[in-house]
Amino acid sequence: MHRRVVLAQRPVGVPTLDSFRLEDGPVPTAGDGEVLLQTLYLSLDPYMRGRMSDGPSYAEPVAVGGVMVGGTVSRVLESKAAGFQVGDVVLGNTGWQTHAVMKPGATPMNSLVKLDPKLAPASWSLGVLGMPGLTAYVGLLDLGQPKAGETVVVASATGPVGATVGQIAKLKGCRVVGIAGGAAKCDFAVKELGFDACIDHHREDLAAALGEACPKGIDVYFENVGGKVLQAVVPLFNTGARMPVCGVIAWYNLTRLPEGPDLTPVLMRNILTKRLKVQGFIVSDHYDRLGAFHRDMAGWVHAGQVKYREDLTLGLENAPAAFLGLLKGSNFGKVVVQVAE
Ligand SMILES: NC(=O)c1ccc[n+]([C@@H]2O[C@H](COP(=O)([O-])OP(=O)(O)OC[C@H]3O[C@@H](n4cnc5c(N)ncnc54)[C@H](OP(=O)(O)O)[C@@H]3O)[C@@H](O)[C@H]2O)c1
After folding, report:
1. What pLDDT, on the 0 to 100 scale, is given for residue 250?
2. Model-wide pTM > 0.85
3. Where are the domains of the chain?
4. Domain over 2-126+309-338 is classified CATH 2.60.40.3250
5. I need a surface site. Which of 12, 97, 126, 157 has the fewest CB within 10 A?
6. Is 164 in the pocket of ligand 1 (CB under 6 A)?
7. Distance between CA atoms of residues 312 and 335, nearest Å
């Protein structure tokens, strides 16, 4: 059976289970030049919330009734394409479905990369050794440019991007302060990932606690969330600080501007007077860094210098609930759905 999760309707605000629909059909077969893939692992990522809406963005939305997009690790079940054998394990973008037929390399979305499962668990190519890991690497090293002794702050500190950012910053000799939702995540960031401190963003006194954890101010703030975390960070910026803007997940479900005072003047005054470097980036613009990333990250992971935690969900039918959990922080680590053994 070919099972897929399609976008049932565009959400207004927070998505719900009704935003998705499960559909079943016969397993397709491969034509000339094509492969039939069986999905083993599906990556769930915050960017998918953006694809569910049809507002202006850097990427096309998923069509209503279309299969939800997503990175996958698959096994080749049938091959009529040169260079691919039955049994090969490949990294691709086949989306929320159990099977897919495609012509490898026909479009950028159809690119397939063969994996060697002996080198690392295949699912890690969806996390620390894949897109989120590259995001952390490029955003921190190329845009954040951390120097030994500086203070680096990152939120979503136990997610695949934030955890990797913090650990690379430690390798570069920085003081690293994480921000995460809850005591268990903060404990993990300090005790397992080696952060110097981690602040629970649910605390009433978030701004004061962050100030205490950053006695020399903040030199790099790797922006993953926006919202009240950004508000707490801004007054602590040092002159010449850098803010790579990677994501603003606290605002992904906004339907209108938040209530309260307009804080744009505070932000702009800080950018001006402290000569801040603020730069947004999209990881797909930085694939030229894949070679250096794979070399460095594989070395760090194998040496145990960068640790990685997955939050595994079993069964494609549970992908919608796992995705809704990711948007509100119920996940603890990189969210991966195991679709088949
Ligand atoms: N620019 C790019 O190319 C690119 C590429 C990949 C990812 N990203 C962005 O990077 C960020 C992290 O992604 P990820 O894949 O590593 O996801 P992740 O950290 O596993 O999951 C998102 C986390 O965001 C936190 N969160 C949700 N709502 C929040 C709120 N209102 N305030 C504070 N924290 C909140 C939750 O962690 P806590 O429970 O710890 O708060 C949640 O677990 C996202 O913003 C994502 O969109 C950008």
Report:
1. 96
2. yes
3. 2-126+309-338, 131-284
4. no
5. 12
6. no
7. 6
Instruction: State if residue 282 touches ligand 1 by the CB under 6 angstroms criterion.
Output: yes
Ligand 1 pocket, 246 CB below 6 A? yes
CA distance 89 to 39: 10
What are 213's two structure tokens?
């954890």
Instruction: Tally Cβ neighbours within 10 Å of residue 83.
Output: 11
- pLDDT tens digits, residue range 112-166? 999 998 889 999 999 999 999 999 999 999 999 999 999 999 999 999 999 999 9
How far is ligand 1, taken at its centre, from the CA of residue 159, in Å? 7
**How much is the pLDDT for 117?**
84
Question: By three-state DSSP, how is residue 235 classified?
Answer: helix
CATH number of the domain at 131-284, please? 3.40.50.720
Q: Which residues have C-beta within 8 Å of that of residue 64, sequence separation ≥ 6?
A: 7, 8, 9, 10
Stretches in the chain below the pLDDT threshold 70: none
Please determine whether the domains at 2-126+309-338 and 131-284 fall in the same fold group of CATH: no
Under DSSP, the state recorded for 316 is: G
